[in-house]
Amino acid sequence: MGDVNQILGLFDTAGERSVDRAIAEYRAGRPVAILQNDEVLVVLNVEALDAQIAQAFDALAPGRARLILPAARLRRLGLERVMPGVVSFPTPNAERAEMLGLQIEGRIDAPVAPVVALDEAALELARITLVSPAIYAIPVAKSVLSVGIVQVEAAEIAAYRASQVKAIKIVGRAPVPLEFAAETEFVVFRGGEGLKDQVAIIVGKPDFSKPVAIRMHSACLTGDLFGSLKCDCGDQLRGTVQKMAEGDGGILLYLDQEGRGNGIANKMRAYKLQSQGWDTYDADEVLGFGLDQRRFDFAAVMLKQLGVNTVRVMTNNPEKIGALNAAGLEVVSDQRAFGRSTPENVRYLASKRDRAGHFIDFDAMVAHAPVTE
């Protein structure tokens, strides 16, 4: 006779399911146990830590708690770091953890040790989960683990993103006529990173035997939907679709990568800092994020599943061009995606040009700006 595990094995691997469950638990503010051989690290998002929980953690492993921080956050705490590190917590102190992990005015107050493999796995789990990358952790014996805590192998976390890229698949498609592009089909893919859906918008009737015009557009709720003046995303989205419709067609990949891959909550935190005078990238660094958390390997898989192998890329971001080349697509040309500059976004656009190498020409933007009444 078979069993339930045999049935589950027909869908995905046990490791993928473990990471899915760990993502849900960690995002909900509950602890997760990460395992490697005989070692166990119980981890918790610092945002969920309070004095009572810190005391409970310390009771499991007295004096052994530690705070895991990415390099970006350590730089904002006053250290010159390119690698993540850990700070010891010999006594439970939730306020100190919040200061080091979350507060703008936080400053390092103790030596920083290098991370080990379990710490790296915890940081990767936080990245996938789209929460603050500051992690409160304690090493424990396997014997203290209960069936109530989700357990996941460090190797499973490390392999998760690659497995999601391979597993991405089309789950629905339908014609959706748009303004400026009446002949348009939406194709929904499940997967890519975490528990997400991605969308390919096929505009017109592009000839897939020739280079196809494409744009990889990361979701921007504020700009795409509400017309935020802080970015040029909405203009780029609608402008590229219109250009495809007026030409030989194309494909816009709408990717669930809000806030350069940091998630909508962290994007709003960064916006708050920007309103106080911080540069967009400095604001992300205060929160513990590097220049850009996005990956585009799954976007290339989406294009290949649609039958596209040669592309003309509409982007200002050289990283996107490099990612498509690295994934095996042939990029025959690239052209700029124009938005409008406003008093509210000019510093943001200049930062993308000067700090992340984006191809942004303000004179060209003015020449190509959408006509407004």
Characterization of this structure:
The chain is of the alpha/beta class and 373 residues long. The protein folds into 2 domains: 4-161, Alpha-Beta Complex (DHBP synthase); 168-257 and 294-368, GTP cyclohydrolase II (Rossmann fold, 3-Layer(aba) Sandwich), CATH 3.40.50. The protein has helices at 4-8, 14-27, 51-60, 71-76, 94-101, 117-129, 154-167, 221-225, 233-246, 258-261, 264-275, 280-286, 297-305, 318-326, 346-356, 362-368; strands at residues 32-36, 39-45, 65-69, 85-89, 113-114, 135-140, 151-153, 169-175, 184-190, 197-203, 212-218, 250-255, 310-314, 330-335. The strands form 2 sheets. A 7-stranded mixed sheet has the order 5-4-3-6-2-1-7, with helices on both faces. A 7-stranded mixed sheet has the order 8-9-10-12-11-13-14, with helices on both faces. Strand 9 (184-190) and strand 10 (197-203) form a beta hairpin. Helix 6 runs parallel beside helix 7 (154-167). It is globular, with a radius of gyration of 23 Å. The model has no long low-confidence stretch (mean pLDDT 91).
Map the helices and strands:
Blueprint: H1 4-8, H2 14-27, E1 32-36, E2 39-45, H3 51-60, E3 65-69, H4 71-76, E4 85-89, H5 94-101, E5 113-114, H6 117-129, E6 135-140, E7 151-153, H7 154-167, E8 169-175, E9 184-190, E10 197-203, E11 212-218, H8 221-225, H9 233-246, E12 250-255, H10 258-261, H11 264-275, H12 280-286, H13 297-305, E13 310-314, H14 318-326, E14 330-335, H15 346-356, H16 362-368
Parallel strand pairs: 1-7, 11-12, 11-13, 13-14
Antiparallel strand pairs: 1-2, 2-6, 3-4, 3-6, 4-5, 8-9, 9-10, 10-12
Helix pairs in contact: 2-6, 2-7, 6-7, 11-12
